[in-house]
Amino acid sequence: MNNGRNRRQTEQVRGGSSRFPGFEICAYKSRPTPHSPTSCSPPRAAATTKPVSGFVQSFARFADPDLLRGAAFPPRLVSFRLPLAPMSVCFFSFDFGFCCRGNLKGGVFLRAIRRAGMQMEITVRRSTMVRPARETPRQRLWNSNLDLVVPRFHTPSVYFYRRGGPEVEGFFDSERMRRALAEALVPFYPMAGRLARDEDGRVEIDCNGEGVLFVEADAPNAAVDNYGDFAPTMELKRLIPAVDYTDDISAFPLLVLQVTYFKCGGVSLGVGMQHHVADGMSGLHFINSWSDLCRGAQISVMPFIDRTLLRARDPPTPSFQHIEYQPAPAMLSSTPQSLTSKSKPPATAVDIFKLTRSDLGRLRSQLPTGEGAPQFNTYAVLAAHVWKCVSLARSLPPEQPTKLYCATDGRQRLQPPLPDGYFGNVIFTATPLAEAGKVTSGLAEGAAVIQGALDRMDNDYCRSALDYLELQPDLSALVRGAHTFRCPNLGLTSWVRLPIHGADFGWGRPVFMGPGGIAYEGLAFVLPSANGDGSLSIAISLQAEHMEKFRKLIYEL
């Protein structure tokens, strides 16, 4: 390491206890190089503790130091030993990183490599409109009410892949991917269409075969490790092609894809999928089928292209109130958390938090046990904890109503179940509603409210929801947005049961897949681990001042 060109700096790490002793922390400043840490050299001088201005503070949780494969680990670093408390504070600049090794029993709070002001240089190599490989049915596809009450944008998601080694040839060969994509669009032909309106103005899909956008890009100065813990920041969103919504709805493709090649040899696949065409399950059905074809396999389940199975009954006969489609509670009084139409929207922050299997076990240990004790599924327990932490971070008064939006897949809830491969939106919403005092009083109280709402989502309730929507004069008025999830409410969508790590294009499974951005404050996602270790991660957007409190509360198990 050239000390003349790379000024050594050590940042302050503050910890209040020695619960996790004996960790060696290496802080340094250097240009990113793609190799992992092996050891930390002894310090030549006492470590400084003066913070460097402009650094950003944030937190992450990791149970394995291998997950901290930073962007730069030169052989000689400024290092020091100290205990790490559960709420340690670390500061990093754009090209700072750190590595850790030691006894990880029980886990340890560490900060992943998150860089301040990180601006990746991304250059587009080629853009192609990929059309189906063969002639496909030309028709107008009717959309169900569930297809029309979704946000009217392209849902962003990003996959990251590491190259296995230099011996791996043709890693994410773009020509091979384009050919497989064209083949996948034959059975999934609505994906290659465009939005249109019928004579009544209802949105439908024009299956015209115009194709999907496929972009190849290079990030010559960036590596997969530069994205640290893969929090859905604006930098992640740059890995997905932008869509121009200023023109008519028939002008943009329903699917935009971008393969970005990094200097480390890794690759990202950015996906933007118009929500009218598919929900998470159907979208992943397409992506995973595309990857199967690219790998040389066959599509295991063909898509079922007929949405009339979700028509309302004639006549529509809703039998429930369906509070999920009624306005979200507002703040009771004018407080710092409330938002008026004339006030400036508060700054928001996004972050991602990992809860290990042992963390989840500690949450369950707070619940009553024994004969007659209520049974809660994992989502209800985790959602109760997140709802509680968010309510506390927002300082909601005890009497403040708060609504939690829980997306649920209706494919197996409807009777008879929808055919395998049903292609479209089948998302119903459970919406537990409670006063903040009940949500924050204890984990069991919140979990009971959530589990009760989930248990009501049976065939009768789902069919009633379809009928309720049929009677609404303007479905667009029910589309959820910033007004839905903002304080004092919360949306928590679980991707745990979705096959989000199933896209193996022939070069291995992704090391991460998650949202490529979070559109609204108060919206969060639950993500499963890519390595099957039983951990779950929470990606969330909150007001910046609330996020600072949430970072501490989420790990108070």
UniProtKB/TrEMBL annotation:
Keyword Manganese carried by entry: no
Keywords: Acyltransferase, Transferase
Protein name according to UniProt: Uncharacterized protein
Family per similarity comment: Belongs to the plant acyltransferase family.
Transferase among keywords: yes
GO terms assigned for molecular function: acyltransferase activity, transferring groups other than amino-acyl groups
Gene3D superfamilies: Chloramphenicol acetyltransferase-like domain
Signal peptide from the UniProt entry: none
